[in-house]
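Aim 2 progress update. The chain analyzed this quarter is reproduced below.
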Amino acid sequence: MNKFLLSLVIPVYEEEKLIYKNIMKIKEILETSDIPYEFIIIDDGSTDNTWNELKRLSKEIKSLQAIKFSKNFGKEAALCAGLDMVSGDGAIVMDADLQHPPEIIPKMVKLWQTDGYDVVDGVKESRGRESIFNFLTAGLFYKLLKKSSGINLKNASDYKLLDIKVIKAWRSMPERDTFFRAMSFWVGFNRTIIKFSVAKRTDGQSKWSFITLFKLAVTAITSFSAVPLHIVTFIGIIFLIGSLGLGIHTLYMKFSGIAVDGFTTVILLLLILGSALMISLGIIGIYISRIYEEVKRRPRYIVSEEINKEDK
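Predicted structure tokens:
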């Protein structure tokens, strides 16, 4: 196996209790498997003691780099920052809570270095303990994304190994509002999967709220498909056909001298048309808001503090 350097990109947020222990466990697995490594850890504006724990880690792991955001910009921005900092021949992106099991890292590296794959996708064989609501909404999201864009992310995760040429291709995409999981799929390259079971969190709880996940789903679908806009057109055509049919029926009743009450019909039509128009305007508004966010060209993130980065 040729000598190489593997970068571990790990975003963290409010992980003071377990970050030291978890990073040291990953380090042990890497050293046991004789994998040259560097840690790139991004503190997404934590307000607890996470940053001080990273400083403590940096004294024991000389190859550790860390940056702290000036505020909470979100996991997607943290992943962008981490991939921007990669200096190795490839990188593994993973969570800090060990729900992405580090035990399979040697297998991922073998698929990359020995078998020649550019991307090794971690796919969830088991989603762990998850509510029925989250399970159903996740399934619905993946189906909508596949139908609208052709990108199949069923049971996909952010746990991936990316060769440096894949990272360079990813960096070439300039959009501000990112969805790493789909963007890393979109770039293509020679890829394979490795299955894993989501481990149980030993402490704390997920930082993802329903609203945050919903926003991410909207970003994903509108970033990779214009199908919702075509749905607006389709709705318009349906109502045009319906209005023509209703118009012909109304004229027939008029000229036949048949009395038409029609009050209930008119009210229902107004409600349906009004709802369809509002939904259509909402869909168009989402795309306009995305254009608005992109043309502002604000940075994806702002760094307030750094650890060991001056050595690079």
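The chain has a mean pLDDT of 76. The chain is about 50% helix and 15% strand. These observations will guide the mutagenesis experiments scheduled for the next reporting period.
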